Amino acid sequence: MLAPAVAKAAAQAPGLDEHGLPKTVFLPPPVPLSGTGPVIGIDLGTTNSCVALLSNGRPLVLRSREGYNTIPSVISLNAQNKLLVSHRAKNQLVLRPQHTIYGAKRLVGRPYDSAVVNQVRERFHYDIVPDSAGRAAVRLADTALSLEEVQALILRECKEMAEAHLNQKVERAVVTVPAYYSEPQREAVRKSGILAGLKVERILNEPTSAALAYGLNRELNKKVLVYDLGGGTFDATILKIEKNVFEVLGTGGDVFLGGIDFDNLIVDYLLARFQEKEGITFTGDGIALSRVSDAAERAKMGLSERSTFEVHIPMLMMDDSGRPRDLRVVLSRQELEKICEPLLSRTIDVVRDVLLDAKLKAAEVDDIILVGGMSRMPLVRDKLKSLFGKGAQASVNADEAVALGAALYSGSVDKVSSVVLIDVLPMTVGVAMPGGAFKRVIERNSPLPAQRSFAINTTKDNEAFLELSIFQGEDSHISANEYLGTVRIEGLPKGPKGSVRVAVTLKLDSECVLHVEAREYSTRKEVKATLATRYSPEELQKQLQVSKESVKAAEERRGADLKERAGGFWSFVKKALGRK
Asked: Whole-prediction pTM value?
């Protein structure tokens, strides 16, 4: 049962309209789209977004109103309650952190009570609330709005940039997502597009899009690794490129790992240094913490080019006597690399797993493509060079490659193209079993489109319908995996318990969208199978509870492992501060 404050928030959170779209607060109701006109490519990022289009057959990144090639994926309300988007919104991060929404890409399409949402809630300064369907939403001032609308506001900014450049209406886009995005998250991106006035013609995985920017029309015959370390997620994908055929051989990722997580470690380190030097405990408010976060990000970026960086935050907080205290730390690249080492090692572990999935040795990878701002860190290049024995490609712009690839693919939307994309399923899809166990049906790294069938029997006499809950993930228990929806199978013939047998087929199309079919075994006649994703049925809630109890010991073991890792980091902090 939700606590009273949370229950109130859920009641105030946006519901769905008659078309199944989130009700909007700042955007007008969606209107029918023509489905014609130019197609743009959008890299909808956690921290920054980028929009590109084809100009005379070549991809072109568009500049924002402020003259930048990327825009911050941020919205905010200023002191006058005026909605701000992009650069103007980011300027409010330090001034009005509780009224500034960032990092929505990590939250969109996720259940409110998911592990990811619980983790980021501790770090984000704004309120995260449940919507009417139990998914994460946010509160902006006194208004609750869906994360689909937050992302739609960023997409609308990209759309308006393209319209200003082309001097015509734009209603179509190819939008990229992390390879590890689940089916509900991909569907949320489509809904965001509709709210922004865009028909999402295709959802592309970011590593595949970056590979297009690198290899399209180059007559290559290579195996490449795309190492994509962005603001909120990490993806590693190995592709085989043969002329214009791009085949994914293996993909992996970490949804808990991105630039935000590196920034958080740097913030912790800076505050530890501040407390040690000043001899006081940091008790600053959200604004003070936002100032430290901003300084941490600038230091991280600066140390990609320099060996030292001075962090100076005047009057960070007042001590008990009312005297202002400054934070002043000279951070070296060597210190930064020690801080970031545990997280970067996790990315290399993922890369090694992807090599195993692709059945390749490191020496068999021909090129390395770096994507995402975090990939500029020299230690990233050093670690990859140590593993592969070669340096990364310098021809690909880490900030623009994904949008450029989406723009290149946009040219094939309306015509027969020589471009062939063969992607894979990033995470296993399966069904809930009694007791909360997870039955794997379509394994991760299966080429898309994919389908698998399995049989189920009635469990009662004359059972009128069957319900089957579908999950995505790699854990053996459903509570640790992502809930995709529940299939209701109706129109079954009458018969004794166990006598009616149904063949259920799960189908995933090339964009990882799930479809379900069911046939009665004896007649092979198709029966009605409806997939609903809004609510978890009561029986599933019971299974989830059993599953959660089953994995409690596993979570404790995982927590001990994380504590051990954190202990290693804090040992370094204490050593740096000269403490035992």
From this structure: 0.85
